[in-house]
Amino acid sequence: MTATPADLPVPRQSFRDLPVLAVAAVWGSSFLVVKEVADPGTALAVLVLRFGLVLPPLGLAAWPALRRLTRREWLGGAALGLVLGGIFLLETYGAVHTSATNAGLIISLTMVFTPLADSALRRTRPSRPFLAAAGLSVLGVALLTADGGLRAPSAGDLLVLAAAVVRTAFVLATARSRAVADTDSLALTWVQLASATAVFALAAPFAGPSPLALAAEFGAAGWGLLLYLSLFCTVFAFFVQAWAVRATSPSRVSLLLGTEPLWAAVFGIAVAGDRPGAAALLGGLCVLAGTEWGRRTAQTPA
């Protein structure tokens, strides 16, 4: 008897992984978008607008769940939002003061930091296949991003390295925080974004034009790109991440998000007309192979 599609087993874990891969893709595209809407003098104002635009509609959608939050959940979500704000500040100013090549390579170290830190907290040793998969992914990112050549570390490199460390802390804290363990994902996303926006708004007067002045200068194209950053690269991305680290493992999430540099290269080739060399193409294959290998070997909840 021939099996019908309904009779075939459903790859539940694969379906859980797809939204995280989508996040990696939109984050990869964000490199091009940010270059169009921001420069070193307006980066912080763009962050305020990017986060501030989504808070009212997201707050309306999350209002029933927000009303049910306990004081502990509000404080836990706000604390995670402060960490999130720190990630964006470090990444933004780090990228401004270093090359895209170095920034892409250094931030990808989150793929290694997360499973190692997770294992340290659990007092367990990562499996050899998982470490090999992570190593292959990092090698791939190195080949992919080093196609234009590396240079000596700078202050920007150190800022991006700090962002990679804070990213690791954010993923693990979201997964392990008892304060938000059962919190509605939409409400948690709103609290985190509101907390991060407060950080950006407080810092904005000390760096570049005000967000309102910058907003007045945007045309239709600029607003379209800003809305893309707000809706897809912010709300969708962090809603999925908040859900995924509780539905799967931090290590799996980190490896899947580690394809972000590959997606950045894909959008660079398709949209910006970049022409990578042989080393970059080989690196892309290594990222795909290492991520899939690691995804299959990472432990996940039953």
Please characterize this protein's 3D structure.
Residues 20-145, 156-291 form the EamA domain. Pfam families: EamA (PF00892). InterPro entries: Diverse_Substrate_Transporter, EamA_dom, EmrE-like. It is found in: Cell membrane. It is a multi-pass membrane protein. With 302 residues, this protein is mainly alpha-helical. The chain has one domain (17-295). It is 77% helix and 0% strand. It is built from 14 helices and no strands. Helix 7 packs antiparallel against helix 14 and helix 12 packs antiparallel against helix 14. The longest helix has 28 residues, at 220-247. It is globular. It starts with 11 loop residues before the first helix and ends in a 5-residue tail after the last helix.
